[in-house]
Amino acid sequence: SRFDIYQFYRNDGNPLKKGHSKRKIKSSQLSALIAIPTVVAIVVAIGAWICHRWRKAMQTADKEIEEIIEAESLQFDLNTIKAATSNFSLDNKLGQGGFGEVYKGKLGSGQ
């Protein structure tokens, strides 16, 4: 025959409402959904802790450098020390230390 009789199109209402919209999550998927964010959070926390420690160490190093610079500014040349101690006079000798003899002296500024 020239014509077949069969249903070409079936209209059952809204095509988006087929089946149930609720999906069941498998236990392995649930484990992954919990484990992955947990691992990411731990890695981020460890990274933040390392960064904090590194910054603190850098600040300590900067402070030590500043202290060294301040200590270097307290150094005097030999001529200034000779003048302050009356050319290392025995009258100005206080004693002997682990690094050598110790003298008292007075700078021109009165210190």
UniProtKB/TrEMBL annotation:
Gene Ontology MF annotations: ATP binding; protein serine/threonine kinase activity
Cellular component GO terms held in the UniProt record: plasma membrane
Keyword flag Acetylation: no
Residue spans crossing the bilayer: 30-50
InterPro entries: Kinase-like_dom_sf
Keyword annotations from UniProtKB, A to Z: ATP-binding, Kinase, Membrane, Nucleotide-binding, Serine/threonine-protein kinase, Transferase, Transmembrane, Transmembrane helix
Residues annotated as signal peptide: none
Name of this protein: Protein kinase domain-containing protein
Native source species: Opuntia streptacantha (Prickly pear cactus)
